[in-house]
Design goal:
Shape: elongated
Largest sheet: none
Helix content: 55-70%
Radius of gyration: 21 Å
Strand content: under 5%
Order of helices and strands: HHHHHHHHHHHH
Structural class: mainly alpha
Distance between the termini: 64 Å
């Protein structure tokens, strides 16, 4: 791979990384620039955040990576405590405190260390891949199949009405809109888009733990996604269901019972 292709690949991976970071924390484009300014951790503008998410910022300056890396390290070092401390620099910024109360998950390496400015730069130029949990890159074309596989997995193939209460209790998101969307996907009324799945994946992964299936460390987020992809591929290979024939078989079974 030539250096230009390597950089292009890195820029694409970095856009997924930034997008997933925002969406999993429920942040707007203003949160990172606001934190950088208030905490004096570097400089990044709202427009730069937007362009990074959309692969439109080809050559960000070093202050961008400095700001992002320092904020990420700060999240690990004590963001929650700082948000609750009336004497901290955040005290006069209720919007940032609210944003952090909704989500303050850092970007962690595969070994659990927070990514710093240098790590983020290496990802952007394609020298290293993003951490596995943030390098999922769900394609739009596979989103419907993954949505179907998710419903099949979390309900173990049973009808939604038989497992609805238990699954909804295990789903950790609190926002009404997200819970209603999740229920609609699980009941087959709609599918997640690729962007929605990318944002939801960590909480969908945690739903397994809430159901008592496995501890979070036993099934990683990337492994969870691969299970869904395997189920989606199997369903595609099986082909469409002949509904009339399936109903006839059900009627025969009932009549002979």
């Amino acid at each position: 791979m030539g250096y230009q292709a390597e950089i292009e690949s890195g820029r694409e991976a970095f856009s997924y990384l930034i997008r997933a970071w925002h969406e999993r924390n429920g942040w707007s484009h203003r949160v990172l620039p606001g934190l950088a300014e208030v905490l004096d951790l570097g400089r990044i503008h709202n427009s730069q955040v937007s362009m990074l998410r959309n692969r439109k910022l080809a050559s960000p300056g070093p202050e961008v990576f400095l700001a992002l890396g320092r904020i990420n390290q700060w999240l690990v070092a004590g963001a929650v405590a700082a948000a609750a401390d009336a004497s901290s620099a955040l005290a006069g910024h209720p919007d940032l405190i609210e944003a952090l109360s909704q989500g303050s998950r850092p970007l962690l390496s595969n070994s659990g260390e927070p990514l710093g400015p240098g790590d983020l730069l290496e990802i952007f130029v394609g020298l290293v891949p993003p951490p596995r949990a943030f390098d999922l890159r769900i394609a739009e074309a596979e989103a419907p199949g993954l949505s179907f596989a998710l419903a099949e997995l979390l309900c173990a193939g049973r009808p939604w009405r038989l497992c609805r209460d238990q699954v909804l209790a295990a789903y950790p998101a609190a926002k009404t809109q997200r819970r209603e969307r999740f229920a609609a996907v699980m009941s087959g009324q709609r599918d997640y888009s690729a962007a929605e799945l990318d944002a939801e994946l960590m909480d969908l992964h945690r739903t397994l733990e809430g159901l008592g299936v496995a501890a979070e460390q036993a099934i990683s987020a990337d492994r969870f996604l691969e299970v869904l992809r395997q189920k989606a591929r199997l369903q595609q290979q099986t082909g469409p269901l002949d509904l009339a024939e399936a109903i006839r078989q059900e009627l025969v079974a009932e009549g002979s019972g």
